[in-house]
TrEMBL record:
This is Succinate dehydrogenase. The chain crosses the membrane at residues 6-26, 31-51, 57-80. InterPro entries: DUF5699. Coiled coil: none annotated. Keywords: Membrane, Transmembrane, Transmembrane helix.
């Protein structure tokens, strides 16, 4: 049991640093995604009204995917699961 704790300690440290890095990247990219989503939404509405309904809907779906409720939320959910695994590993190490 002691050997497992020695082996898991550097893994837990690396996982902690990785989650901090990922959280920082997600928070920094949030502004870019919001701006891109807003511009793409405006373009989608213009295309929807003037050009083609099908292309406008496709652009709206893409705008939703890059909005904070789309793929970035999936990344936050996955980061939460990774932090949960790290917390379980730390509980094993210190418990």
């Amino acid at each position: 049991m002691f050997l497992l704790k020695i082996l898991f300690a550097p893994v837990s440290l690396a996982l902690t640093l990785f989650t901090w890095l990922c959280a920082g990247l997600i928070s920094c990219s949030a502004f870019v995604f919001k701006l891109a989503s807003a511009l793409l939404s405006l373009l989608a509405v213009a295309v929807l009204i003037t050009y083609s309904v099908k292309n406008g809907i496709i652009l709206l779906v893409i705008a939703f995917l890059i909005s904070p409720l789309g793929l970035p939320m999936l990344a936050v959910w996955m980061l939460g699961k990774l932090q949960g695994a790290n917390a379980a590993m730390k509980n094993f190490l210190y418990g």
